[in-house]
Amino acid sequence: MIRGLALTVVTALTASLAPTAAQASTPTTQCRQTQVPVQVTGTQEQLSATLCDPGDAGTVLVLFPGASYDSSYWDFPVRPRTYSQVRSLTQAGFATLALDPFGNADSSAPLSPRLNASVEAAALHQVVSALREGRVGRAYSRVVLVGHSLGSTIVALTAARYDGIDGVVLTGLLHRFDPVDTVALFTRGFAPAASDPKFADRGLDPGYLTTVPGARARFFNALTTEPDVLAAEELTRGVFPATDVPDAGVLIELLPTTGLIDVPVLLAVGEADRIMCGTPPTGTDCSSAATVRSAEAPWFSAAARLQVFVLPGAGHSLTTAPGTRQYQRAVIDWARSYVEADGGVR
């Protein structure tokens, strides 16, 4: 009986994932799949993405997910009225471009040795330029980058090195992290994606990784996360190139690269994030926005006007935490107050 129930749940969830690009569509918002051409070490590749626009948005938020996630992280297929950040942003009047990182969905899968965080930041900068120039839909006057976890390191590198960005949201990323849980995740939680039946026909080289069964539990607060959310997380798992990790760790976690970001920054983290939070001096005290800001402020310049949001009870992944609507509202309020009120890049 239990096995039959599990099969029913999995079948229903799988069916719900088919029209992912339309999950956030509303009567006033149109979503469509698109591909953005980018140059990677001299070769043209493409990043697939879902562009959602309520019709008159001047600001577009570019959403870059973390390791082993694709664009569905931002437009989650379970109860989108609660868990889709794309939906909440577009209903608030913003456009969104949810990216599928290399190796995911219809994005190219360059040989992993050709990729690292710096290369991906250069590709993300090309996406920003395409949005400003009207080569992805219409031209947008303001572009905000939103990242999660490893995706946040790529977002931070892009904002530190390139112009054309009006604001940055970094989620699931702090400069102090729990080394024990992080090492456990990267040594036992990931395996070559080519060995996973879900990705067996993708032609991915061994450098592309995905999570092993059960590893995604580290992304959540098991006491509060809903069972169907956990099940959908396993079904929507993605891949990432392991070659992104070394320079991301050095450039963001060890060097003061984030101090070069000169646009408004919102830092968001879950109070119960097992990877980032813990007892100083290793992990960060995430008991309040004040304690997180105290730890993080030295890594940012005054120009960043650093704002911090802590989601009570949440783990590493904020979009699928039960209180995610609070986080979504914090991003919307910040974007209106610190990005749109400034009028964009000058």
TrEMBL record:
It comes from the Bacteria. It holds the Pfam family Abhydrolase_6. Residues 1-24 form the signal peptide. Gene3D superfamilies: alpha/beta hydrolase (3.40.50.1820). Keywords: Hydrolase, Signal. Residues 61-322 form the AB hydrolase-1 domain. GO terms for molecular function: hydrolase activity. PANTHER family: AB HYDROLASE SUPERFAMILY PROTEIN YCLE, MONOACYLGLYCEROL LIPASE. This is Alpha/beta hydrolase. It comes from Sporichthya brevicatena.
